[in-house]
Known about the structure:
The complex is a heterodimer.
Chain A: E1 8-10, E2 18-19, E3 30-33, E4 36-39, E5 47-52, E6 66-71, H1 85-88, E7 96-98, H2 102-111, E8 116-119, H3 128-140, E9 144-149, H4 155-162, E10 167-171, H5 177-184, H6 188-200, E11 204-211, H7 219-233, E12 239-243, H8 258-270, E13 276-279, E14 289-290, E15 297-302, E16 305-309
Parallel strand pairs in A: 6-8, 8-9, 9-10, 10-11, 11-12, 12-13
Antiparallel strand pairs in A: 1-2, 3-4, 5-6, 14-15, 15-16
Helix pairs in contact in A: 2-3, 4-6
Chain B: E1 6-7, H1 12-29, E2 57-59
Amino acid sequence: MGPPGATVECQICPKLCRIAPGQSGECRVRVNLDGALTAVTWGFPSALHIDPMEKKPLFHFKPGTPILSVATAGCNLHCAGCQNHELSQGNPEAMETWALPPGDLVQLAMVRGCPSIAYTYSEPIVYFEYARDSAALARDKGLSNVLVTAGYANAAPARELLSLCDAANIDLKFFDDRRYRDVCDASLAPVLRFIVLAREMGVWVELTHLVIPTLNDDDAVAQRMCRWIAREVGPETPLHLSRFTPRHRQKNLPPTPSETLVRMRALALAEGLAHVYIGNVPGVRGQNTFCRHDGELLVERKGFHVTRYAIDDNGTCRHCNNKVAGIWAAPPGLGGTP
Amino acid sequence: MTGTFARVPWSRRAVVRRLGLLGGSLALGAAGWQLTASAGDRPDAPRGRVTAPLRLRVRPLDLRVLDAHHDLAG
C-alpha cells in the first residue's frame, strides 16, 4: 500500500498495469483506492451455478460429480471471441452481484452436496484473493478446488493459487504469439510457463483449445502445439478441442465446422496425445474416454452426463488393470456416492 | 479486500518518468492541463475505468440461480 495519491503497479499478471488513484487495471476489478490496490469483487460473485464436472471441461477428474462454479466480473485478457464477454469484459458496477464471502461460498457447496468448487467463467487470476481465500477454506473442509483459467499470470501468484488447487483446465488459445497479442491482448510464453508450473506442482491439468476458423485451425501449427503438449506436459494430458460459436467482436467468423474438429482430433492423436476430446458438438465421436493400453471404453458420456464407467477405485482400467491418467471416483448412480 | 502482489513503483525509470511528468505538468499547467497515468501499455488497450467511489449492485442471493439454465462457457 502506498501513500494516498500514489500510483500502484499490479503484479498479478504480466501486464503489470500501473494504476492511478481511482482507476482500475485492464481487468477492471483491481482498483487503486487511495493508494491501495483493492480487489473490489472480493466476496461479490456475479455468476454462481452448480454444473457437472464435464462442463468445465474436466473429463479425468471426478467425472459426473456436481461442482459449485463461481465467478466475479473481470478478465485480464480481451479475447475478441470471448464466449462469456458479458461477464468477463463488463464493468463490475454494471452487473448484479451477491455478497458471498469465502466462508459462505464453501458452506453453500457443502450444503448442496458439491465435493468441489470451480473458479471459472471469467478469469480467477483477477479475483485472485477471493479464489485463494475460498480455496484455502474449501481445502480445510475436504473439498476439491478447480481452476478454469487462461493461465496469464505471474509466477508468484500463480504458485500461490495453484498450491491450493487439485485440478485445472487451462486455455491454450493459440500456439502463436502474434495471434495471442492480436486476438487476446496477451502473449503465449506466460501461458506456457503457467501450464508447465501447474503440472510440476502436481495439479491435474487438462487443456482447452477453442478452434476458431481461419485463426487457429492450421494443421502445421496444431501439430507443433500437440508436440509441445506431449513433450512438456505429457502425452496423457487431456486436450479438449472446443467448437467456436460467433460471439462478441468475432461475429464475422462462422462456427467451427465439425469436420475441422474431427480432423484436428485425428492429428492430435497421431502426434501421440492419448486423450483428445471434441467439445460443444453433441453427437460427434470424441466425447468418450478409452484405455490407451487395450482400447476399451472406460467412460461413456452423453452430453455432460456419464452413462458408463469402467475404472476401478484405484484408477485402473477394469479390463487390463493399467493405470488411467487422472483423479478418479465413481460417479453418483454408477457406483459413486450420490 | 486489499489486493496482494502490488507495489508502488519507485525505480530509476520511475524517477525519470516522474521528473518528465513533472516538467510536462509545469509546462502545461498554465493551460490547465493535467497529466494522468493510464492502465496498460498498449495504445488500444481498454483504459482503466474510474470506479471510486465504487457502487456494486448487490442483490439478495436467490438460491434458485444455482440450478438455473445458463449458457456460460467453462
